[in-house]
Amino acid sequence: MSTISAATLSLTAVGASALTPARDTGPACLEQEAAPASSARGGHGPDTREVSSAEQERIAARTRALLAKKGTTSAKAAAASASIPVYVHVMAGRNGAGDVTASQITQQIQVLNKTYSGAESSSAANTGFTFSLAGTDRFYNDTWHRDGASTTYRKQTRKGGANALNIWLVDFSYLGVATFPWDYSRNPGIDGIRVQYSSLPGGSAANYNLGETATHEAGHWLGLYHTFQGGCTATNDEVTDTPAQGSATNGCPAGRDSCSLPGLDPIHNYMDYSYDTCYTQFTPGQSSRMSQMWTAYRS
Fold this sequence. Notes:
alpha/beta; 6 strands; 27% helix
C-alpha cells in the first residue's frame, strides 16, 4: 500500500483544503443519467449515464459484432467467468476524513465475492466472477475527497487494463457512480466505479452500509442496466428473467408491482435501488449478460 500526499498528484498543491471545486466528470454523455435524483438509492443522484432505447439497440448490435469478431456467439459467451483484480483508491480528506480501514476494504472484497457467487439466496445465480484485491492507494486531498476534478484524478490514479476494477472511495452526493464496459475504448482512463466511502461494511450510511453499493455499481461495470431500465417496457433491461419495472424501488416493499407486464418488481435484485438488507441476488439471465459483456469488452 502506498501513501501519497496531495502535493504529489494534485493539479495544485496549494490551498486544496480551501477549494470548493466544480464537478469535473468529463463529457456529460459519459457520466450522467437524465433521471430525477429523488428516484435513486436513498434519494442520491443517478449512478450511470443515460442510455436511450435507440442506443440500447446500437450497443446490442455492437456487442454481437464484437463477439462474432472474437469467434463466439452470445450463447457461447454466456458461460464466461473471470477473476477480477480490484484496485481500491481511498480518496481521503487532508484531515483523514474518509480514510477507511484496511479491514473495511477486505470486508468489501468479501461482499463482492459473496454476492457474485450467489451466496445470499438459494435462488441467486453464481455468476462465476470472483474478485481479488490487487492494491490499495491512499490520497489525502480535499478536492479529490469530494470528487472534485474526478476526470483528472481517475486518469492519474487508475491501474490495470479493461479487466481491472478500479474503485474510488469518495464523499459525494451519490451512493455510487459507474461506467459501462462499452465506453471503455473511448475513455479508458475514467473506467471504474466511484463509491461513497460510508457505504462500505461498517460505514455510517444508514440502510446502505453493508457494502452492496459496490455490488450494484460493479454490476453496471460488467454491463448490467438497472432492472427498471426504460420503465415498463418489454425490452427493459434486456434480461428476460427480471420482471419489468415502471420505476425504481426505495426500501424493501414486499409485493411491489409498478408495471402492468407480468411479474412483481424484483426488489431483491442487486440492480434495483433497494436497501442493502433487501438485496439478495443476480438472476441467471443477468449472469449470462455479464459474461457476454465481459467477453465482448473486457477479456
